[in-house]
């Protein structure tokens, strides 16, 4: 009995479970339907079964599958209240082409480095917060990860030969191009809280070049407007103000006061790890002539300037945002004294 799954489950249990199932054939594919039978034990299979439907049962933890499950080509486990499925269990499904694990309670899942034949994988409507490492699934063509809680996409974790990728309705805010996905034909990233920064527009440009979607089908959030802060100062104080720019390629930057470019005062420029540029203006000693509205400009050859207006004494921020068609320069107000 050591080679049988029933070493941990009485034989009568799996047999009873199987008796509640129906055997049929579709297009010469021997199939077994055990859906909605209130099962809590994985049933044994009839002979020669290659398609198994276990949907709408209850298998919270799956450590192993019965041995003959390795002969399956299609396995449905949707709506089974699954919270955990072990790597060993998944590796044993060496011949499964279509695997449906949607509408469960999975928070994590790992496939290891088994010899998988998977071509279609449905993980939608779970509770995944991080993209699982699917890079070893080289046969995978259709992947559905929609309606999870995924925060970020690590490109190296994507299956290299995927043709259809669904990431809709997650918590993704940033994406970059994936030029290595040369077979990709369908992409759905709708209903994510994207931020309209420059890397996102690089992603959009890449996706549009492959005719995966149109720009106007990708709603996103403009950079949040900074709260207006009132700062009381006295003459003779120093004053520093900064604007944060995300742009590709790097734009021309300058500060302006009373329609004059401030090239003769102290300007500093710093590149952050995120790729954003912090562009600061420092006034060493404030005098009457320094009062008024200051503007931080960022401009490239393919985008109109954007301004951030600030009053030195009573900080008032009036942000002029470029239209969505101007993707190359996005300004982010940061902190101002």
From TrEMBL:
Signal peptide residue numbers: none
One Pfam family in the UniProt entry: LRR_4
SUPFAM superfamilies, per the entry: Immunoglobulin (SSF48726), L domain-like (SSF52058)
Highest taxon, organism lineage: Eukaryota
Sorted UniProt keywords: Disulfide bond, Leucine-rich repeat, Repeat, Signal
PROSITE patterns (UniProt xref): IG_LIKE, LRR
Domain Ig-like: start-end pairs: 223-307
InterPro entries: Ig-like_dom, Ig-like_dom_sf, Ig-like_fold, Leu-rich_rpt, Leu-rich_rpt_4, Leu-rich_rpt_typical-subtyp, LRR_dom_sf
SMART domains named among the record's database cross-references: LRR_TYP
Name used for this protein in its record: Ig-like domain-containing protein
Organism: Angiostrongylus cantonensis (Rat lungworm)
């Amino acid at each position: 009995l050591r080679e049988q799954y029933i070493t941990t489950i009485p034989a009568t249990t799996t047999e009873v479970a199987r008796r509640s199932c129906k055997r049929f054939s579709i297009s010469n594919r021997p199939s077994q339907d055990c859906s909605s039978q209130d099962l809590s034990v994985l049933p044994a299979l009839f002979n020669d079964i290659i398609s198994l439907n276990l949907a709408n049962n209850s298998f919270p933890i799956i450590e192993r599958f019965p041995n003959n499950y390795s002969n399956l080509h299609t396995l449905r486990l949707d709506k089974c209240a699954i919270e955990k499925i072990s790597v060993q269990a998944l590796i044993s499904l060496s011949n499964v082409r279509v695997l449906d694990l949607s509408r469960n309670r999975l928070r994590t899942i790992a496939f290891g480095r088994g010899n998988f034949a998977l071509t279609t994988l449905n993980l939608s409507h779970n509770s995944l917060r991080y993209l699982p490492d699917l890079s070893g699934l080289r046969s995978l063509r259709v992947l559905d990860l929609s309606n999870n809680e995924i925060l970020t996409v690590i490109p190296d974790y994507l299956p290299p030969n995927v043709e259809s990728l669904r990431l809709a309705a997650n918590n993704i805010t940033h994406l970059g191009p994936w030029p290595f996905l040369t077979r990709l034909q369908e992409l759905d990233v709708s209903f994510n809280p994207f931020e309209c920064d420059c890397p996102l527009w690089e992603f959009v440009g890449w996706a549009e070049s492959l005719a995966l979607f149109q720009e106007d089908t990708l709603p996103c959030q403009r950079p949040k407007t900074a709260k207006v802060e009132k700062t009381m100062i006295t003459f003779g104080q120093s004053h520093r103000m900064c604007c944060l720019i995300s742009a590709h390629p790097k734009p021309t930057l300058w500060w302006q006061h009373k329609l004059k470019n401030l090239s003769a005062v102290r300007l500093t420029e710093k590149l952050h790890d995120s790729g954003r540029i912090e562009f600061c203006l420092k006034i060493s000693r404030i005098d009457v002539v320094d009062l008024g509205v200051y503007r931080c400009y960022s401009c490239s050859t393919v985008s109109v300037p954007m301004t951030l207006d600030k009053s030195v004494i009573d900080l008032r921020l009036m942000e002029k945002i470029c239209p969505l068609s101007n993707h190359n320069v996005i300004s982010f107000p940061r902190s101002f004294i």
